[in-house]
Amino acid sequence: VEVPSACVEGGVVRIGGSDIVMMAGPCTVETEKQLMTTAAAVRKEGAVILRGGAFKPSTSPYGFRGLGEEGLKLLAKARDEFGMAIITEVMTPTDVAMVCEYADILQIGTRNMQNYMLLDEVGRTRKPVVLKRGMSSTFEEWLLAAEYVLSQGNRNVILCERGIRTFEKTTRNTMDISAIPLIKRLSHLPIISDPSQGTGRRDLVGPMSLASIAAGTDGLLIEVHPNPDEALKDGAQSVTIEQFHDLMPQVHAVAAAI
Ligand code: PEP
C-alpha cells in the first residue's frame, strides 16, 4: 500500500515494504496547540504518518467524542505544515466522503470492524484503509471484514492488531503478538500494530512496539501526547514526547536486527 506524503523521498510512504512505518500522534485531536506540538515532535523523530481522532467511538457517551470536522481541519493543517500523511477514524458511511477530503488513510476502529455498510462504503473509495481487529473477532471474521473492502474494488487494506478482550483486567486489552506472523501466513495484506490500544498502558507501549517489530509488523500506530495526564481521552495509554524520543532508537535497533 502506498500513501502520499511530502516527507519521504519520492512522495510516497510504502506500507508493507521493507521499512517499519511509524504512525504517531494524539489519540484525539483536542486543540491546535496540542496537535501541532505533537506533530512537530513525532515528525522530528521519524514518524511519517500523523494519527489523530476527530470522530471518537467513546465507550461512555459522556466521554470526549472528538472535535468532528474541526478536528479534521486541524489535521489537514498539520499535514501542510509538517508534510505528513494523515490517518483518522471514520465511523459512519455518511461521513466517508467528508473524511476522505482530509485523510490520507481511513481508519476503521475495533467497534466497527463488522459494520458492513461502512466497510462497503470505504471499499468504494480508493483510499488506504486501516482495518482494526475487532476486540472479540476471530481471524476468519477479521479477514472476511477485509474482503468487504477488497470486494468493492479497494485493494488498499492494511490490517491492525490492537489487542483482544480476555479475562485479564490489568491491561485494557490483551495484545496478541502472534496475530502478526499468523496474518502474514493467512493473507497477503500488510499488518501494523497498535500497542497503545493493545495494552491501555503507556509503560507497555515500548516493549510491545519492539515485540511487534520482532514479530514482523509493517508499522506501528502509537498514541503520543505532550501531557498525557491532562489528555481528554486515553491519557493512560499515551506516551509522552520524551518517551517517544527514547523509544525510536530502540525501534531502529530491533528493526536492524531482524
Ligand atoms: C483509536 O485508535 O483511536 C481507537 C479508538 O482504536 P480502537 O478502535 O482500536 O479502539
Distance between the termini: 22 Å
CATH homologous superfamily (4th level) name: Aldolase class I
What is the number of domains?
1
- What is the alpha-carbon Rg in Å? 16 Å
Identify low-pLDDT runs.
none
Number of DSSP strands? 10
Strands ordered across the widest β-sheet: 9-8-7-6-5-4-3-10
CATH architecture: Alpha-Beta Barrel
Biggest sheet architecture: 8 strands, parallel
Features:
258 residues, alpha/beta, TIM Barrel, 8-stranded parallel beta sheet, two-stranded antiparallel sheet, 9 helices, 10 strands, 38% helix, globular, binds phosphoenolpyruvate
Give an account of the 3D structure.
With 258 residues, the protein is α/β, with parallel strands linked by helices. It has a single domain, classed as Alpha-Beta Barrel (TIM Barrel), CATH 3.20.20.70. It has helices spanning 32-44, 69-82, 96-102, 116-123, 139-151, 179-186, 195-199, 202-215, 241-257; strands at 2-4, 12-14, 21-25, 49-51, 85-89, 105-108, 129-132, 157-161, 191-193, 219-223. An eight-stranded parallel β-sheet has the order 9-8-7-6-5-4-3-10. A two-stranded antiparallel ribbon has the order 1-2. Helix 3 (96-102) links the parallel strand 5 (85-89) and strand 6 (105-108). The chain is globular and about 40 Å long. It binds phosphoenolpyruvate. Phosphoenolpyruvate binds at residues 27, 53, 57, 89, 109-110, 132, 162, 194, 197. This is 3-deoxy-7-phosphoheptulonate synthase. One of its GO terms (biological process) is aromatic amino acid family biosynthetic process. GO terms for molecular function: aldehyde-lyase activity; transferase activity.
